[in-house]
Amino acid sequence: MALAAINLSDVKVIFEGSTILENVNLTVQDGDSVAIIGPSGQGKSVLLKIMAGLVLPTEGKVLVRGENLSEISGARRQKVVNKIGMLFQKNALFDSLTCGDNIAFPLREVTDLDEQQIQKVVAEFLEAVGISHAKNLFPDEISGGMQKRLGIARALALNPDLIFYDDPTAGLDPITSRKIIDLILRLRAQNSATVVAVTNDMNRAYQMASRIWMVVDRQVVDAGSVEQTKQHQDLRIQQFITGAIRGPLTAPDSGAIND
Ligand SMILES: Nc1ncnc2c1ncn2[C@@H]1O[C@H](COP(=O)(O)OP(=O)(O)O)[C@@H](O)[C@H]1O
Ligand SMILES: [Mg+2]
């Protein structure tokens, strides 16, 4: 049987004496597109970091393609980690590097490509996310939507087969959000990667997910497919999805960042 992309067994996370997540037993299969939903502060970002090997669980086991990231190190760990792309909630761009150099950074760190080849890849990715004109600008000189695009390009530069997106549309206006999700879906169709994305926007979750997980009360509930989620018996899931759909659509679109 093929190895699962990710397997979490009996995972528990305790931070400073408080339990953030417990009894987490879940699998992400190759080719899945998982949307993680749930109220804020419940542990969605922590769960993503646990799966990416950036945070180690207090108890339990996390396997990425069969490898336990807390037990391996050096080149063996690097090999697994290099196939993981991550878009952080706050993009985590390098402010002192141009947009082009932000994408070049992982290529310079990890690959043996020469400068000419690196510049070719950089140009391809800037083009793919639609910000070619921003190559020589710094991140604080471009809009929030463009920073998201840049973060996505950098996350994908090493051609990962496992991609984590932490709230890729947070703070963006509805039109820019849709464009970012379309971009994620288009790039996914191109490289057939496995995707796990945190989002609090149910419309986006329905648009992109093959499965939906909800983080609530320190647990992670696998709510199944979009159709199964819509009809889920768990009242917390029903309340969350109906609230989330009514919420953002009727609320005034304040503080949005234009693309
Ligand atoms: N590195 C950390 N150290 C201590 N507590 C943390 C750390 N990271 C997150 N937390 C806590 O874990 C909880 C879940 O956080 P987070 O995963 O960011 O929530 P969400 O992404 O669902 O909004 C919060 O109470 C947060 O304060
Ligand atoms: Mg978060």
Commentary on this structure:
- This protein has 259 residues and is of the alpha/beta class.
- It has nine helices and ten strands.
- The protein has a domain at 1-83 and 194-251: P-loop containing nucleotide triphosphate hydrolases (Rossmann fold), CATH 3.40.50.
- The protein has helices at residues 44-51, 74-81, 99-110, 115-128, 144-156, 174-191, 202-208, 226-230, 235-250; strands at 6-15, 18-28, 33-37, 59-64, 67-68, 84-87, 162-166, 194-198, 211-216, 219-224.
- A six-stranded mixed β-sheet has the order 6-7-8-3-9-10, sandwiched between helices.
- β4 and β5 (67-68) form a beta hairpin.
- The protein is globular and about 55 Å long.
- Bound molecules: adenosine-5'-diphosphate and magnesium ion.
